Amino acid sequence: MALGCPYGTHRVLGPLGVFPQPAKFINNDFSTLYDNEILIEVEVLNIDSASFSQINTQAEEDPAKIAQIILETVIQRGKQHNPVTGSGGMLIGKIKTIGSALQSRPLNVGDRIAILVSLSLTPLHITEIIAVHKHVDQVEIRGEAILFESGIYAKLPEDMPQKLALAVLDVAGAPAQTAKIVKPGDTVVVIGGGGKSGLLCLHEACKRVGVTGKVIGISHSEAGVARMKESGLPVIPLQGDACDALWVLHQIKGLTDGKLADLTLNMVNIPQTELASILATKDKGIVYFFSMATSFTAAALGAEGVGKDVTMLIGNGYTEGHAEIALAILRENPRLRKIYERTYA
Amino acid sequence: MALGCPYGTHRVLGPLGVFPQPAKFINNDFSTLYDNEILIEVEVLNIDSASFSQINTQAEEDPAKIAQIILETVIQRGKQHNPVTGSGGMLIGKIKTIGSALQSRPLNVGDRIAILVSLSLTPLHITEIIAVHKHVDQVEIRGEAILFESGIYAKLPEDMPQKLALAVLDVAGAPAQTAKIVKPGDTVVVIGGGGKSGLLCLHEACKRVGVTGKVIGISHSEAGVARMKESGLPVIPLQGDACDALWVLHQIKGLTDGKLADLTLNMVNIPQTELASILATKDKGIVYFFSMATSFTAAALGAEGVGKDVTMLIGNGYTEGHAEIALAILRENPRLRKIYERTYA
Ligand SMILES: NC(=O)c1ccc[n+]([C@@H]2O[C@H](COP(=O)([O-])OP(=O)(O)OC[C@H]3O[C@@H](n4cnc5c(N)ncnc54)[C@H](OP(=O)(O)O)[C@@H]3O)[C@@H](O)[C@H]2O)c1
Ligand SMILES: NC(=O)c1ccc[n+]([C@@H]2O[C@H](COP(=O)([O-])OP(=O)(O)OC[C@H]3O[C@@H](n4cnc5c(N)ncnc54)[C@H](OP(=O)(O)O)[C@@H]3O)[C@@H](O)[C@H]2O)c1
């Protein structure tokens, strides 16, 4: 066969000219494969949390109806791209065929991998839905999917349960970026430090700032603060509401002799915390927004409005080596692994 | 008097605890001033374009009604914060009083300055509306305003007309950031290069990449491409639609031997150009989003979906020295000044 587009546009059926993610229909006929495609025998769909709860409501919480809705979406669109929420999720499966153009990859037929690009752009064909696991947003299926040449993935580690690995891979971009931007001696503030991505970032931040640095974590609930403490990391834990920008400013000022943070990581799951993140950071410092609730304009105009010369980064879900960096954290920190097993897996 | 909050929260009347920008009501009684406030005798309000066109429509294009609507907003809110669009604009005026805590600033009573923070957070009191200049979104008034300690401003230059300086100051953040991130030898793509901010960025990019670099500008219209050519800058001009990510990718690939850009600057005024910006950029490169039409999630998920390890920056309207850097461009490049005078001033 021929080479397809590395981004998979060769499988877009409509509207023509767009990428697989915004496309309404994509081709999920896998009887002929392109030379730069990888065919996966799918085992589990890990539906995005927003999408799963929408489907669950529409199905009146009936697993049979949930299965029906998913089947219909995939028949109509050629991918599990929730038409209401617009989101997807990820999948786990075994490699069935590796296209001739990708033979140099460190992959073998039979390897179990997680596809880290969204289901909302992944060609999928379902033969049978085996089981719906409502408490973890997962669906066991028999079926096949395509990974495009540009698609990112991770081999599943042998030394941890699949569910644990999935929980880490879901937020892998954040700790990997943290590892890359934190410098020794830095003062780092992690807003949402008690959460799934926040805890991993606290670990990386502590490791990178070293003994001359300082790491402060902010969480909203007592449980979140307890998780930060239980991690055993040398973090200064704060409990409070990051929507209250003045409170955050005063706390961080107090803890840094008025110098503020070199780097603030925003890992919350709620809107309107842009200004707190900006104010916690010193001039010429960096604010890293990983939260999907971030508003571009609130950040841009917020910094201008208070005259803050900070560099503001949009959290890219991908950075080289992100899966390995994130998975390594649970090996390095057994206490964090315990929290993760209890809370997210 | 006492010191106020550097960010002006001492003038917020409601809701309490928020910053002046999101506030509904702020105190515009200037009979007592705080020691870290600067009182301005206002001459001209430069209403934000989105706000002005909303007011114009509501006023059925009648200047008297436009004046009435502005007066009412300022009486109700204590600031020209358009309740429909949420936006403000900027103002020009002469310094009347400098608070005792700010005496060390390089400013004198009588200096004419432009306030570069939004009118949507600036305490304003209007005594009289003198004239409404509809074609330039400006309103001449008699009145006073407060600049907070953290508020940014620029002295108006002596060597250019006020309207020309205002046009440049409106987008000053973009060329100043460009100057700071471009390195010699870089390949730079400016999407929206024929626009108001794009042209200034093209100038800075050409200056910084030097003879070993390459600068490519993309504009949608023939007029935009003509402006890029007329600038006399060594730019490779492209005409096309940046919503077509594949077209952009192919063009930039072709012009860079497949290597793509080290830095892509997004300066458009329309949505859905995130993916084109990401695809035009090489791995480990930088994408700088200045456009307010940027969607945070489209950028974050877009980069992940195509597996691109790029650093994505949110365009901060402010960076140190931004006004001087931007104004200097028109002095350095007389052709650009001519285009600016004809097109934007
Ligand atoms: N950019 C990407 O590619 C990407 C990928 C995956 C996820 N994300 C985003 O990352 C964010 C975090 O995900 P997650 O899985 O880590 O979420 P999570 O486990 O729910 O953690 C959220 C954290 O935010 C804290 N928080 C919530 N409201 C707060 C408030 N008002 N003040 C202070 N802290 C508050 C929570 O504190 P408590 O626990 O104490 O309440 C918790 O620590 C989400 O927005 C998600 O969309 C982005
Ligand atoms: N971050 C901040 O603080 C800040 C401050 C001020 C402004 N901004 C934002 O900066 C952006 C640009 O402002 P501006 O005043 O420079 O705008 P502008 O003068 O209107 O320029 C817009 C440019 O985008 C180009 N364009 C429009 N549609 C396009 C398409 N489909 N494909 C390719 N190019 C296209 C235009 O090309 P043609 O002229 O050829 O049609 C033009 O070159 C706006 O979004 C504004 O909100 C941000």
Automatic annotation (TrEMBL), chains A, B:
Q: Which domain of life is it from?
A: Bacteria
Looking at the record, the residues that make up the L-erythro-3,5-diaminohexanoate dehydrogenase N-terminal domain are: 10-157
Query: Which Pfam families does the UniProt record give?
Result: KDD_N (PF26370)
Recorded protein name is L-erythro-3,5-diaminohexanoate dehydrogenase
The family database entries (SUPFAM superfamilies) matched by this protein are listed as: GroES-like, NAD(P)-binding Rossmann-fold domains
**Organism, scientific name:** Desulfosporosinus fructosivorans
InterPro entries referenced in this protein's UniProt entry, alphabetically? GroES-like_sf (IPR011032), KDD_N (IPR058932), NAD(P)-bd_dom_sf (IPR036291)
Gene3D superfamilies, sorted: Medium-chain alcohol dehydrogenases, catalytic domain (3.90.180.10)
